[in-house]
Amino acid sequence: MTSPIASPTVVSRLSEPHSGPVPFSVEFFPPKDAPAEERLWRAVRIFERLRPAFVSLTYGAGGGTRDRTVRIAGELARETTLTTVAHLTAVNHSLDELRAMVGSYADQGITNVLALRGDPPGNPMGEWVKHPEGVAYAEELVRLVGELGDFQVGVASFPEGHHRSPTLDEDTRFLLGKLRAGAEYSITQMFFDVEDYFRLRDRVVAADPEQGAKPIIPGIMPITSLASVRRMLELSGSKLPADVDARLTAAAGNDEEANREAIRAVGIDLATEMSERLIAEGAPCLHFCSLNFARATTEVLDRLGMNVLVP
Questions:
Q1: C-alpha triplet 113, 117, 122: angle, nearest 5°
Q2: Residue 199 domain-assigned?
Q3: Considering only 149-158, 218-227, 302-311, which range has the smallest mean pLDDT?
Q4: Residue 310 resides in a domain
Q5: What is residue 2's predicted lDDT score, i.e. its pLDDT?
Q6: How far apart are CA 132 and CA 104, in angstroms?
Q7: Rounded CA gap, 274 and 289, in Å?
Q8: Rounded distance between C-alpha atoms, residue 216 and residue 154, angstroms
Q9: Reported confidence tier of residue 114, pLDDT bands at 50, 70, 90
Q10: Which CATH number is 42's domain given?
Q11: Exposed, middle or buried: residue 11 (CB in 10 Å: 0-12, 13-18, 19+)?
Q12: Within 10 A of 166 (CB to CB), how many other CB atoms are there?
């Protein structure tokens, strides 16, 4: 495969000047229909003026959004000033299909890829079945992408441990395997207890200081709805700490729908408090799960002194 024209890498972007105390980045997902796509692009244009270090575009389990992911990732790379990271998952894909997907990204000028094993379609907690001609682990996917051209590869990390890992030590071993295979950074699954992030970082550094020097970027989701966060927790296997749950439950009172604004206010407070701790303790970047909306993330950025629009 011919190497694509290199765009700025995620790691290089993290070291460039930024308006706030740390850089930030944003995660989008492929929209399902035309109105949702319009909403995505409204958010994209707002964030573009805030100059995130990078943006990422997720990839549906089992490749359900593959074509849309490639198209929109290409449009983000070509039609905006944003450094774009495209997700790539191993679920239900042969090696030939994975190579073709990486080639499609290269054709779009995308040189930053987040390599994920991915979750089974339909039931993320269900049995993970390797494609007979595919790969079994994200580590293999990292190596594959590295063999196909001049890409910078990132991977996922899990502050609470991946739900399939029997222990945190085993989970750390898997992360180190991905980093040693060539991944240059990781982005964490969303979490709501910053101590889980610090413990993850400490485990990696203690196990392998060289790999521990690579950025571990915390994933943050400002909570705007109890229903949506419950669904995200169900899909990810993460949990709400008792004190966070208590604050949200108190805001919801006995009518979650009627108290949506109170819930949202607590969610913004929580994301801001987490971000402040992460900045103070040296997190290299803040990665916001936007759900294709700009308002909640920009409110948090504003409180952090990072909401600086560029004309």
A1: 115
A2: yes
A3: 302-311
A4: no
A5: 46
A6: 22
A7: 14
A8: 10
A9: very high
A10: 3.20.20.220
A11: middle
A12: 9
Does residue 254 form part of some domain? no
Cα(180)–Cα(105) distance, rounded to whole angstroms?
23
CA dist 253 and 39 (Å) reads 31
Q: Which domain holds residue 40?
A: 10-239+269-303
148 touches 102 (CB < 8 A): yes
Task: List the structure tokens of 52.
Answer: 């995130």
Q: Which residues pair with 85 in a beta bridge?
A: 56, 112
Domains of the chain: total: 1
Note whether residue 163 is domain-resident: yes
State pLDDT tens for residues 139-171. Answer: 999 999 999 999 999 999 999 998 778 899 999
Name the active-site residue from 16, 27, 37, 234: 27
In the annotation, is 27 catalytic?
Answer: yes
Nearest CA to 183 out of 230, 232, 229, 216 is that of 216
Extract the runs of DSSP E, i.e. beta strands, from 77-195. Answer: 84-89, 112-116, 152-157, 185-188
